[in-house]
Amino acid sequence: MNQIKRLKPNTEQRTLPASGWLTTAFHAAVVTLFWFNIQGVIGQVPVIKEPQPSSFNQVLIGSNQNSNITNVPNNSSNDPLYQYKQDQKELQKRNETLNKVLNKQTLNRQIQYDLPSLANQPGAEHYRNAATKLNSMLRGAEPMSLKRAVFMTENAYLGGRLKYDDFNKQIQKLVFIAKLKAGQSGYDWNNPQTRNIMLFRVLADTLEVKDASSEGGTATSYPMQYDFDDIMGTNNWTKMFVSKLLKTKTGQCHSLPLLYLILCEETNTQANLAFSPSHSYAKFKDKSGNWYNVELTNGRIVSDAFITASGYITSEALKNHLYMEPQTKRQTIANCLNDLAIGYSQKYGYDGFISQCADTTLKYTPANISARQMKANYQTHRFEYVVNQVGRPHPDVLKSQYPKVYRLLEERDKTYRFIDESGFQAMPIEAYQAWLKSLNEEKAKQENQGLMLRLTKTLN
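Structure (tokenized):
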């Protein structure tokens, strides 16, 4: 699963050096969308020149407006100009106050509070079209289809070059082989458990079936392999795509469970997406209500104990439903919006589109930690963009003179506090790789055999 890199202010928390104002820091590390660390590419935020206040004429009495008035006698009767000098001092003070007010008002009129829109970038329209369709599904305005949701999300990044017919044909071929193999093995395809297992096997095993329409009268389906190159899609976001998995037969924990869920959707078979740190997988129930975890990165059925063995699932994270929770179909499609935002940020950068996608995902899945991190990254980019316009003053100055800018700082910090208090812990890539390796150890193999045996007994 992709990781999102958490954007960090470049200073210690609440440190205010004499040389200038620095932003606050986050006291917990993240996904290194991801971040993730979610390994997302951080978009560049345009930097505008600091606006200059308009000049204005000060109204002063007399020509010596810059003189300092000193040594005013305590007894006004000894100085005939005492009252004049007092009036001049008072007027100077008022002019200074007026200067500050006018400077503030002029600058406030020039502050841009939203990141510049990237909607006019070549290909950006595909993202907004995909987001419109996904939102329509989520609202119930059109049927929910995970297959189409995944296709649109990937097609947006590919600039509309992906062909749906080719995408669909490859999926139907896998369904055909799974169904044919079930029948030739004497299993009842109408049994939901048969479909769960055979759709898993068509991705995890080598299946040879008798097929009169194929050359030689047989057809063979080979297992999908784990792609160890750029496993988080840091350098090539298409590494995360189901379309890439179908084409190359290699993928990772983002594309493999999505493909399994699409196959289940095509056959009206119940299965769910679930998350663990830096990872996603599928799960389904048997007829007795027992859950089974489908770990397609190594073609295993594993227990919850193996999922939690990474050591990065805290009790707080479980309490707050961050991990191991079966996602509904609507929540899985909502997560496609977050995937859309991650791809957009890597290709173009950050603007309001990122926030809209993250907010919609969180509307349907408040515990989606990846979407929460995307929201925090957007808020960081936005605050940096706005605070640079006002010269990065001390936070106390922000609070008193630029309350709207200060609220952006508060909103960003609130999101990061939420992440830190949710129980989330960033999982280093080395730890993730070590956990994946453990799934291939003998203990995992034996457990897989036991669970598969128990499942197979339900097929007849």
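Confidence is low (pLDDT under 50) at residues 10-73. Residues 144-313+429-456 form one domain.
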